[in-house]
Structures are given as structure tokens and as C-alpha cells.
Design a protein that fits this description.
alpha/beta; globular; disordered N terminus; 13 helices; pyruvate-formate lyase- activating enzyme; 22% strand; 5-stranded mixed β-barrel; OB fold (Dihydrolipoamide Acetyltransferase, E2P); binds iron/sulfur cluster; Rossmann fold; 34% helix; binds S-adenosyl-L-homocysteine; binds FE3-S4 cluster
Length: 451
């Protein structure tokens, strides 16, 4: 099979799951490039294929199983192909063994705490030609200065902390990502300054719960303090916009709201996963707040931060959720008037406390509930977007829109997609756009050359 591409020496990474994983894949890519491997755009052209996996819901796992099935045939045709499985799924209790049994063609399994070992592990596979497994069960440390090969663009991800201590009863993440570990502020500041020098315009600070940032750093700094330091990072042509995800509604402090309100770089977009609107269910989920506290928090944000957009994650069908609980969720959605929401059907995750609850909601019921929820949220999202008609929004221009010639696309500070006529010269700039028309998923507008 001559493809014209030398396969040995090339790699391809398939990433599943959240931004954390997307960014971890950029680190995996960085390490492979440092070893002299080159990226193959297509999986079929790669000598090394890595799957960076997610196990937050069964659907994510099924995608990995099905890709591994396809890779079995590929390995039969090309026995020198190296197949590695890393990320959250590999870290799950008993999963490495299951993967080895089901997919004997996998050469390498590595956990979330072993990412930095990739170069050594690949060398072992190449030299010994026998399967290698490295899944450290603990919580891992932090390895600084790993090479990163970022996706091209204006936006860069920066991990500020690893792990999660919250143990929401439905969630697998704390089991596969370990305990919270914060990066030292100076390492984060150095990285962000470096990104500014490399012409990135926006950073997204990543952590499962960024509000916990610094709790393990002996009172040295908290998340608001980190944002203040980043705000002060004055550089010519440096990072202009800062976003973060995800923050937990439970510990979103007044000081944090004030810091964001006073900041010119931190965008006025608040992603605050609510998960449910029923106090009974919130308690069973171990979320640590009530619907009243949550709605109060949103009010406080809206009062203090002009033009704030608020988005959320909501789950339906948690064990024991009855009609009344679900109606409480719908009611909260009506009151909160989210700009948008990621909606999920509860999925049992083995090993989590909720998995052993007796009163699981029937699948048909969950489906009906999510449809009703999506319908309601879509109507509200459109209303919220319509409220932006006539307003002037700052937009970071990302590129030309695929929807038509002469159209540019970018994101507003509130995180909404905005499309407007303009020329390529504006790409990479922050411009002012007057919103002329609102749709469900995006806004259209016209460029105001002068603010
Ligand atoms: N740390 C973040 C995100 C975690 S995962 C946070 O706390 O918000 C992203 C979303 O997946 C969660 O907000 C939740 O809505 C959803 N999720 C997590 N576990 C789930 C499960 N077992 N079933 C369905 N959705 C789940
Ligand atoms: Fe999961 Fe809760 Fe941690 Fe988010 S805060 S990662 S939902 S345990
Ligand atoms: Fe999935 Fe792991 Fe992220 S389980 S959602 S990839 S932290």
C-alpha cells in the first residue's frame, strides 16, 4: 500500500471528552514531536495512534471501544502500528485489564497520572515489541515544562489545577483524575506571558473546579488572586481575554465576583453547572448548594457584572428524580434564564455512590424529560440572544465564516458566536460589532469601525 507517506515516525491522536483532555493531547503531541515524530493528519497514515479517552458517560466509552475494534483490522494489515490508550478510561478501576483482554492489539495503556512518562513508554514498546502498561493508582503530581504542541489559533488552554475533591455522587472524574493539585502561580504566569509573546489573544484557564485553585498552596493565593495577577500581566500584544472553566457554584465567592467585575481581561461569561433544580436531588448529588443559593448567586452576578452571560450544565434522570423534582428543574431554568445549557441524561458510572441507588429512572422517562428541558432552554436561549439585538459587542475575530464569502466569525466576551461582513485583515483583532439579528446558536451583526 503506497500512500506516499512514511508511516514510521508519524503519530495521530484521537481525543474524547472535555477541554482538559484536549489540552492533555496537546502535551502528548508535544512530547511525541520532541521525540522526532511528526503529526499525521489522518489516522490511516500514522505509525503511532493514541486514544486519549473519557469515561464521564457510557457513550464516550462506547466510542473508544468501537474505534479500538476498527484498529484491530488496521493492526492486522500493519503489524508495526503502535496503538496506545491513555486518559480517564485507562485510569478507571479494572479497565486496563478489561482493555487488555478485549483488545490484545493494544500496545500501550497509560493512566492520567502517567502522561509525562509517554516518551519512555513508547521507547519500551518499540524496543521490546510487547505490551506496556503504566497506570499509577494514586493522585499523581505535577510535571512542569512538558512540551506542548498547541492547535493553531488565537485561543490557548492553560491547566491551572488537576483533579477534583468534590465527589458529586454521579461523577467518575474524582476517581480517574485524583485529588486537587494546583500549579504554582509563577508557572502559570510564565506560561500565559509566553503565550502572549506567541500572539495568542485569549487563554482558557482549566480545572475541574477552578474556584478551589490554591487551596493546597498554603494560603499563598486563591483563584481571585490568580486572576488579579493575570490582569496585571502587562505586555505589549499580550493576552487580552481570559476565560476559565469550570467553576463550582458552591464556592463562587463575592471576592471572585468583584475581581471579575473590576477586570478588563476576564470575560463576563459565567459557566456555572447547576445540575438540578430540586433541593432534594441537589442534596443527593452532594452539590453543596440549594436552588435558592444558586439563584441568589446568579442575581448577585447579574447585579455586579454588566452584560454577564450565564451558561450551565443540567442533568435529568438522577436516581429518585420524580415529576416534581423535574418540574423544579424546569422552574429553575425559567427563573435563571440561562444563555445556553449543556444538557445530559444521567448515566450510571460504576464505582460512584449514585450507581448503587435503587430507584433508577426508566430510560424512556429520562428521554422525555431531556426533550422537554431542551425545548424550554432553546426558547430561552433565543430570547436571551434577541435581547442582544441592537447592542454593541466586542468580538475577537477568529477567521472567515464557512457560511459565506466575505463573512467573518468570532466570539463575543459573553462567549457567543458572532458572524458579520468583513475582510480577512480583521482576523486576530478585537473589534466592535453591532448585533443586528439573533438566532438560536449565533448572532449576526455589522462591524463598527469606530466604537
Ligand atoms: N467539573 C465540571 C465538569 C464535569 S463533567 C463540573 O463540575 O461542572 C461535565 C458534565 O458532565 C457535568 O457538569 C455533568 O452535568 C455531566 N456529567 C457528569 N457525570 C455524569 C453522569 N454520570 N451522567 C450524566 N452526565 C454526567
Ligand atoms: Fe465531577 Fe462534581 Fe468534580 Fe465536577 S465538581 S468533576 S461534576 S465531582
Ligand atoms: Fe471525560 Fe476525563 Fe474530562 S472523564 S469529561 S475526559 S476529565
Amino acid at each position: 500500500m503506497a500512500t506516499g507517506i512514511e508511516r514510521k515516525g508519524t503519530y495521530h491522536i484521537v481525543t474524547f471528552g472535555c477541554q482538559m483532555n484536549e489540552h492533555d493531547s496537546e502535551v502528548l503531541a508535544g512530547m511525541l514531536e520532541n521525540m522526532g515524530y511528526e503529526q499525521a493528519d489522518e489516522l490511516k497514515d500514522a505509525g503511532i495512534v493514541l486514544l486519549n479517552t473519557c469515561c464521564v458517560r457510557e457513550t464516550a466509552e462506547n466510542k473508544v471501544f468501537s474505534l479500538l475494534g476498527r484498529l484491530r483490522r488496521m493492526k492486522q494489515e500493519r503489524p508495526d502500528l503502535i496503538i496506545g490508550v491513555g486518559g480517564c478510561m485507562s485510569q478507571q478501576e479494572g479497565m486496563a485489564r478489561r482493555l487488555r483482554q478485549m483488545f490484545s492489539h493494544v500496545d500501550l495503556i497509560f493512566g492520567t497520572h502517567n502522561t509525562h512518562e509517554l516518551p519512555d513508554l513508547i521507547r519500551q514498546v518499540v524496543q521490546n515489541r510487547s505490551p506496556v502498561q503504566a497506570v499509577w493508582p494514586g493522585s499523581g503530581g505535577i510535571t512542569e515544562n512538558l512540551p506542548v504542541k498547541r492547535k493553531a489559533g488565537l485561543r490557548a488552554w492553560v491547566t491551572i489545577m488537576y483533579g477534583c475533591n468534590n465527589f458529586c455522587t454521579y461523577c467518575i472524574v474524582p476517581y480517574v483524575r485524583g485529588r486537587e493539585r494546583s500549579r504554582r502561580p509563577e508557572d502559570i504566569l510564565d506560561e500565559v506571558a509566553d503565550l502572549g509573546r506567541k500572539d495568542y489573544k485569549e487563554v482558557i484557564l482549566l480545572g475541574q473546579n477552578v474556584n478551589s485553585y490554591g487551596k493546597d498552596l498554603e494560603g499563598l493565593i486563591d483563584f481571585a488572586g490568580l486572576l488579579e495577577k493575570l490582569e496585571q500581566l502587562d505586555q505589549e500584544g499580550g493576552i487580552e481575554w481570559i476565560r476559565y472553566m469550570t467553576s463550582h457554584p458552591r464556592d463562587f465567592s463575592d471576592r471572585l465576583i468583584e475581581t471579575i467585575a473590576a477586570s478588563s481581561k476576564v470575560c463576563e461569561h459565567f459557566h456555572l453547572p447547576v445540575q438540578a433544580g430540586s433541593n432534594r436531588i441537589l442534596k443527593k448529588m452532594n452539590r453543596g448548594y440549594t436552588r435558592e443559593r444558586y439563584l441568589e448567586l446568579i442575581e448577585k452576578i447579574k447585579t455586579n457584572v454588566t452584560g454577564a452571560t450565564i451558561t450551565t450544565d443540567i442533568m435529568v434522570g438522577f436516581p429518585g428524580e420524580d415529576e416534581k423534582d423535574f418540574n423544579d428543574t424546569l422552574d429553575l431554568v425559567r427563573q435563571a434564564r440561562f444563555d445556553s445549557a449543556y444538557t445530559f441524561v444521567y448515566n450510571t458510572r460504576p464505582g460512584t455512590p449514585a450507581a448503587s441507588l435503587a430507584d433508577q429512572v426508566p430510560e424512556a422517562e429520562k428521554k422525555a424529560r431531556i426533550q422537554e428541558l431542551i425545548k424550554l432552554q432553546n426558547a430561552i436561549s433565543l430570547e436571551r440572544n434577541l435581547e442582544e439585538e441592537g447592542t454593541v459587542q466586542q468580538v475577537l475575530v477568529e477567521g472567515e465564516s464557512k457560511t459565506g464569502p466575505g463573512l467573518l466569525i468570532g466570539r463575543s466576551r459573553g462567549g457567543k458566536m458572532v458572524v458579520f461582513p468583513g475582510t480577512q485583515g480583521f482576523v486576530g483583532q478585537i473589534v466592535k460589532v453591532q448585533i443586528t439579528e439573533a438566532h438560536l446558536a449565533q448572532l449576526t451583526g455589522k462591524l463598527l469601525l469606530k466604537g
